Structure formats: C-alpha cells, structure tokens
Amino acid sequence: MTFILFICIILIIVCTLLIAYMVIYNKFQELIIRINEAEVEIDSILRKRFDLLNKSINIIKANTNVEGEVLELIVKLRSRKLTNFDLDRNLYEAINEFNEYSEKYPELKESDNFIKIELGLSESEAEIIACRKYYNDIITEYNRLVKSLPSSIVAKIAKLKEKNYFDGRDRNDDVLNDFKL
Q1: Which terminus of the chain is less hemmed in, N or C, by CB atoms within 10 Å?
Q2: 43, 39, 65, 63: which is closest to 117 by C-alpha?
Q3: For residues 163 and 143, is the Cβ–Cβ distance under 8 A?
C-alpha cells in the first residue's frame, strides 16, 4: 500500500513538473513569435527608408549641380547584406547626409518628389521608434524569463539564450557599466 502511494506521489510530481515545463516553454515560444513579428515590422520600415533614400539620389542629382556621388552610403548598401541593427545605423547616417543636402540646396524644397521623400522619412522615423520600443519591451520580457527561476531551467534545457536589444548592445553590458566605480 505504501509503495503504491509512493508511486502515485512520484507520478503527481513528475506530471506537475512536466506541465510546468510545457507552460513555461509555451511562454517562451509566444515571445519568440512576437519577437519575429516585430523584426519583420522593423525590417519593413527599414526597407521603406532605404527605398526612399535610394529614390532621393536621382531627385537630388536632377535638381542640383552636385559633383560626385550623392548619398554614397546608400549606393554602397545596395549590395551588402546587413543585420537590421547595422542597416538602421547606416540609414541614420544616410538620412543625416540627406538632410545636409536639404539645407545646402534650398531648390530641393521646390520639388514635390523631394518633399514627399522628406515626409516619408519623418513618418518612418515615428514608426521605427514605436517598433523599436515594442521590440525592446518583448526582449525585456524574454530576457527576464531566461534569467529568472524556474524559467531559466527551461531556457537551459531548450538552449534559449538572452537576446540583444534593438540598439545592438546587450543590456547586461549597460547594467554592469552602471555599477562600476
């Protein structure tokens, strides 16, 4: 009789642990799906920004007498494969160069196409900020699960590791730097 009771208790414990594992694993999977969705949205916005800047090259050349390459960085990016982190940084540099042309050549403001591109870039800026925040919020939740018990056990078993925030740095680096004397 005690042997049967012992087996029942062991089975209840094993089933409880298995159910807890499945619940936590499913939470990880839900977050991974949300992360992937956010990455797709960020990728879409970055492509839109790249396309706008790429279109602006011909508009700048047609409306100014610029010597040499216009938005050289965009031309170089055409053939390179970059992560979204790197593409975002490069696009910011290209947008700064685009803004310099806008300031140097006031005649560009007379072009409807140039104004449309300028508006598109400013709209995409608001979109990318919102997507970055959403992505980083999900990453915070995911990384919290990876680091805290009992979900860290599930993460180790499933070989899940912490993920970087959209700014490309690992948050732990910032936290550790904040506490160094």
Answers
A1: C
A2: 63
A3: yes
Whether 1 maps to a domain, the answer reads no
Structural domain that includes position 120:
32-136
Domain count, the chain: 1
CA gap 180, 174 in Å, rounded: 10
Domain assignment of residue 10, yes or no? no
| CB atoms near residue 160 (< 10 Å) | 19
Q: What tokens does 105 get?
A: 């050549």
DSSP three-state, residue 159: coil
Task: Provide the token pair at 93.
Answer: 């540099």
pTM for the whole structure: 0.77
N-terminal to C-terminal alpha carbon distance within the chain = 63
Q: Which two tokens stand for residue 157?
A: 């078993």
Q: Which of 109, 89, 90 is nearest to 99 (CA)?
A: 109
For residue 2, which amino acid is it?
T
55 belongs to a structural domain: yes
- Measured over the CA atoms of residue 105, residue 108, residue 114 and residue 115, the dihedral's sign is positive
DSSP label of 130: H
Maximal CA-CA distance, the chain: 96
- Whether residue 60 is contained in a domain is answered as yes
pLDDT in tens, 69-115: 777 777 777 767 778 888 888 888 888 888 888 888 888 888 888 88
